[in-house]
Input
Amino acid sequence: YFTETVKTRNHNISIENGSTYVVLYGQSIKIYLRELTKTTGPRSKWINTPLMPTGLLAFKIDGYLGKEWRDGTATLEEQFMSIIEELEIKARALQGKSMNRNAEIIAAREIEKNNQLKKMLVEKELEKFKQLLQRAERWQKAQSLKAYIAQWKADILASNEMTQEISEKIQWAEEKADWYDPGTKSPDLYP
Output
C-alpha cells in the first residue's frame, strides 16, 4: 500500500548501496522498515542479551535521529498517509535548502568570475603600464643618444675633421637612434 501511494503522488522509491530511499521533489530521504524486538533476559553491559521479535513493525525516516512510527493503537498501514505527508514536508524543506545552496554556489561562482575578471584587467593594465615605462625609457635613451650624436657631429664640424667615413658613421648612428626612438617608428636599415 505504501509504495502504490508514493507512486500515485508522483514520487519514487529507490535502492542504493543497500539502503532504501523515497525520492520526493528531487530529494532522496532514507527510510527503514524493521520489526521491533524485546529482550528475553536481564540486561547487562557485559553480556549480549538475546532479542525476541514482537511482531510489531516500525517505519523510520532519516537515520538515527529521524522520526519513527510504530504499530500501536494505530497500525503502521493506518499511519502511512501521515508518514507520506511528513516525507513531503521534509522533502520540500530539503528542496528549499538545496535551492538556497544552489543559489549560493551560483553567487559564489559569479563572485569568483568577477574577481578573476578584475584580476585579469589589473594584470592587463599593469602590462600596459610596463610597456609605457619601457617606451618612455627607450625614448629617453634615444633622446640622449640623439643629443650625443648631435654634439659629436658639431664637434667634428667645429674641428673641421669631417671625412666620408665619419659622415657615414654619423648617418648610421642617426638612423639607429631614430630606429630606437619609439616615437619615430623608423625601420632598422642595418639589421
